[in-house]
C-alpha cells in the first residue's frame, strides 16, 4: 500500500488551483502527444497554445544582443579567442560579457549574495530612478527567480494562517494558489468590467468591510492579467490612499509595464505615484508600505525560462527587512543567469551599431504585439455573444462570453463549469488551448475566457478564425 495518497499529503496542496496549467492545458498536452502518432484523429493540423504568456514557446525570437552576451558569459573561455569571435558577436556583446566577468570573476556557476549581484541591483535602482524621477536604494532591491518567487516570499512573510489578503477578481492564480498553500484567506475585490476593468475605491471599501479576518495586504496587477487593462492615475492614487487609511501593505505586480499599447494610457508605477503623493503632502511620508515586482518573462524580451526578476521594498521596517533577507537566504540566491538577464533588460546596449540592431528588434516585437492587440479587438467586436473591453496592455484578451442555458445544463451533466466545457470543446474542435474565466475568478453569473495574443502574425488570422468559428458553432449548437 502506498504511504502517500491524496488523503495523506498536505491538504493545502490539494486545495490549491492553478488554471493556466490546469485541466484544459493538460488535455492539450495529451492531444499533442497523440497527434504525433494519430494526426488523422483530429479536425485540425496543429495546436495553438494560447493559455499562457510564454512568448518563446510561440516562436518569438530572443533578442540577439542578450543571447550573445549570455553565450559568452556561460562559456567564458570563448572570450580568450576574440579574433574568432569577430564577425559572430558584436564588439559591444564582447565588451558587456567582459564587464560581467570582471564583476563576477568566479563566473555564473557559484552562489551569489542572497539579494543578488550588487552591481545588478545598483543598475536596477538607477533604472527605477530614471523611470520615476525619485531615488531608489540598491539595498532595497532583491533579485528573484522571476516575479513569482518574490510574490510568494512576501505573501509568506505577511500572511499567517487565517489572515486575509485582498486580491483582484479576475486575478492571476499565483495569488490564490499561494494563499491556499499558506492557509491564508483570499479576500476578493472585483474589477469594474463596465469601466475597462478599473479599480474603484468603493469596491475596495466594500471588500474590506465584508472580510471576517485581519487584512494584511492588497495586491494589484497593472497592467492587468488576465484582463489586459492599464490603470489610470486616479485609480492608482485611490489604491494608495486606501492602503494608507487601512494600514495595510500594497503589493504591486508590474511585470507588464512595457506592454502598454495605447498612448493615452501609459504605464504609471505605484512607486512614482506614492512618492508624488508624499512630496505633495497628500499622505504622510513613509507610512505606506509598498513592494513592487518586475520580471524578464514579459515585456518585449519574454525570457520566461530564464527566471529573472526583482522586487523593490519601500517604507519597510528595518527589522522586517532582516526577515525578508533571511527568507531570501533560505533559497541561497536567485539563479545567476536570470540575474544577468535583469541587467540586460534594464541596461540596453549603447554603441550605435549594436543599439540600432537592438532598437530595431525591440520595435518590431512591440509593434507586432500592438497590432495583434488591436486585431483581437477588431476581430471580436460585433461577434454575437462576445463582449470585450479594449485590450490596452499585457498579453491577453479576456472576453465575456454568453453561454446558453442548454449549454449550462450540459456542463452540469459533465460535472464541469460552463466555461471549462466551452474551453475544452474549443480545444477538441479547433485545437486552440485557452483558460476558462473561472480559473481567474469572475462575477457570479458571468463567463469569460482568457487567451494570449502571442501567436505570430503569420498565423494570427487563422488563430482568430478558429476562435470565432468555434464560438459561432457553439452558440448555434446550444441555442
Q: CATH-wise, what's the superfamily of the largest domain?
A: Type I PLP-dependent aspartate aminotransferase-like (Major domain)
Distance between the termini: 49 Å
The percent of residues in helical segments reads 40-55%
Most strands sheet? 7 strands, mixed
Low-confidence stretches: none
| Oligomer class | single chain
Average pLDDT: 92
Proportion of strand residues: 5-15%
> Do you know the CATH topology of the largest domain?
Aspartate Aminotransferase, domain 2
Q: Using the coordinates above, name the CATH class of the largest domain.
A: Alpha Beta
The helix-and-strand class reads alpha/beta
Q: What secondary-structure arrangement, pairings included, does this model have?
A:
Layout: H1 11-15, H2 23-37, E1 48-49, H3 64-74, H4 82-85, H5 91-103, H6 118-132, E2 141-144, H7 146-158, E3 164-169, H8 174-182, E4 185-190, H9 201-210, E5 215-221, H10 233-246, E6 249-253, H11 270-279, E7 290-295, E8 309-314, H12 318-330, H13 336-346, H14 352-380, E9 386-387, E10 396-397, E11 400-401, H15 405-414, H16 418-430, E12 432-433, E13 435-436, E14 449-452, H17 457-478
Helix pairs in contact: 2-16, 3-5, 6-13, 7-8, 10-11, 14-17, 15-16, 16-17
